[in-house]
Design brief:
With about 210 residues, this protein is an alpha/beta fold. It has one domain: Alpha-Beta Complex (DHBP synthase), CATH 3.90.870. Helix content is about 25%, strand content about 25%. The chain has six helices and eleven strands. A hairpin with a 6-residue loop joins strand 10 and strand 11. Helix 1 crosses helix 5. The chain is globular.
């Protein structure tokens, strides 16, 4: 049965953040709030936890999860970023966007798109998420919590716990955090390409 932590969205309790990160490091799958919707997350190096997330969402092996990062300091380790892309990233993060970039060799192969060698990177604007990542001191593997057959993410932590209490190790109740998925922006080339319209101001990337 999963644990259930109510964490304050503006002032996350340090004790609960520490406990949450212990669960992640021990191979746990957690439900946590972001700036767009609730998400499933696990340790970047944990193949078993990643497989559990795939089973919860019934994702195929070629569906790539994103790396959720605390800030841009992780970008150089996991992605190849040119100067124009970095300027865009700096202006748009933290925010509700997923950026597709060329992956470096530091990214576990199971997270990289098998043909294009890309990785999705996120820097969410959410205090709980930021506190988790600061304590973890490395990115998490993550995907939006949309159950099979559903169009929208789950938004009620109590319902999430009821539905997934035997499939995840922790549900973090951080209040309402949104219902819309992130916008996905491809930054592989010189000009950004909007792959999916979701949260956030897309005028930053030439839309509109």
């Amino acid at each position: 049965m999963s644990q259930f932590f109510r964490i304050h969205p503006d002032n996350p309790q340090i004790r609960l953040i520490h406990h949450s990160v212990d669960i992640i490091r021990a191979g746990g799958v957690v439900v946590y709030p972001t700036d767009s919707a609730y998400a499933l997350g696990c340790h970047i190096g944990d193949k078993s936890a990643l497989q559990r997330i795939r089973q919860i969402r019934r994702l195929s092996d070629d569906h790539n999860l994103s790396l959720v990062c605390r800030d841009l300091s992780d970008l150089g380790t996991y992605a190849k970023v040119n100067n124009s892309a970095y300027r865009l990233l700096k202006s748009a993060t933290p925010g509700p966007y997923t950026f597709l970039l060329q992956a470096t060799r530091e990214v576990p192969r199971r997270l990289v798109h098998p043909k294009r060698k890309t990785i999705g990177l996120r820097v969410p604007d959410n205090n709980i998420c930021r506190a988790l990542l600061n304590e973890l001191a490395e990115p998490m593997m993550s995907t939006t919590l949309i159950l099979p057959g559903e169009e929208y993410p789950l938004i009620d932590p109590a319902e999430i716990r009821e539905l997934l209490e035997h499939q995840v190790d922790l549900v973090i109740d951080g209040g309402f955090c949104g219902l819309e998925v992130t916008s996905v922006i491809n930054l592989e080339e010189d000009a950004p390409v909007i792959i999916r319209e979701g949260c956030g101001d897309l005028e930053l990337f030439g839309a509109g």
